[in-house]
Design goal:
Elements lengths: L3 E7 L11 E5 L13 E2 L10 H4 L2 H10 L5 E6 L3 E2 L7 H5 L5 E4 L2 E2 L4 H8 L2 H14 L4 H8 L3 E2 L5 E4 H21 L11 H16 L4 E4 L1 E2 L11 H7 L20 H9 L5
Parallel strand pairs: 1-2, 1-4, 2-3, 6-10
Antiparallel strand pairs: 4-9, 5-11, 6-9, 7-8
Length: 273
């Protein structure tokens, strides 16, 4: 078996890059038993395939964590998003001589990541997420705050790393997500249902930053060989630096971001952490 496996998350027929390393995986298969894309699926073995509407491509990450064992390096990309490097069993060893994990090149934001998080989650869910992190992994608090007040957005839940690192990350990630799932109410709108996929994007860099892994970033392309559009992080940050002054000062503790009326509302709903 090839010791390098890059899963390519797919949910419909499309042009997909594949070879002996790049392996398409049909996600959400449990919800669409009649749709057969001809790929391996996230609905075998230990899986959370039925959670795909809320967890998005994270159902593939969970499947790889629980069911792929005889691999040295593991990664995830999408049928329409790839790292702008075609990984081979030769070049991947060269890359990882100087890196522990590969993530997407960060997208520049004109506002701190906290604002993005508050735009894609409800205010109640943001507080629940922070409370869960504080309860399960209080040592991560400073890293979470630093990332929240930063402008770097590492998107798409895409990564490549050694399997043992991948497994440790997955255990940490899904412990947080499943605990959040216990307290959060499932949104009714289609886009909002992707809540745990969004949270996964937020948590991904935090894990690797906190654990001081050497992060190597690679630009994203729509398909291997296609042109990559580069965005200047420094230029974007400088042009919007004044906007930072509009936002709250960086707190020392996550509780400082909580609104008392939201806390009261959660208690009225019977949600206490």
């Amino acid at each position: 078996m090839n010791k390098v496996k890059i899963l390519v998350a797919c949910h419909k027929l499309a042009k997909v890059y594949q070879d002996d390393i790049y392996t398409p995986i049909q996600v959400g298969k449990a919800l669409h038993p009649d749709l057969d894309l001809g790929y391996i699926t996230d609905a075998t073995g230990d899986s959370i395939s039925a959670k795909n509407p809320m967890f998005c491509e994270l159902t593939a990450i969970y499947w790889a964590w629980k069911n792929l064992h005889d691999v040295e390096y593991i990664g995830l990309c999408h049928y329409r998003r790839y790292f702008d490097t075609v990984f081979t069993s030769t070049n991947i060893h060269k890359i990882f001589k100087k890196a522990d994990v590969i993530l997407c090149s960060p997208l520049p934001r004109k506002y701190p990541m906290l604002i993005k998080l508050e735009r894609i989650l409800s205010c109640e869910d943001v507080i629940i997420l922070f409370k869960v992190i504080k309860k399960l992994y209080p040592e991560y608090e400073k890293t979470v705050i630093d990332y929240l007040w930063g402008y770097k957005d590492y998107p798409y839940n895409m990564l490549v790393c050694k399997k043992e690192i991948f497994d440790s990350y997955s255990k940490w990630l899904f412990n947080i997500l499943f605990t959040c799932e216990h307290y959060m109410h499932t949104p009714s709108y289609t886009c909002s249902k992707r809540i745990f996929g969004y949270i996964g994007e937020f948590l991904l860099p935090i894990y690797f930053i906190y654990n001081k892994y050497k992060i190597h970033t690679i630009d994203i392309t729509s398909y291997p060989g296609n042109k990559v559009q580069k965005i200047g992080m420094k230029a974007c940050m400088m042009s919007h630096i004044r906007e930072l002054l509009k936002f709250r000062h960086m707190p020392q503790h996550l509780e400082e971001t909580f609104d008392s009326s939201i806390i009261a509302g959660l208690k009225a709903d019977g949600i206490e952490l």
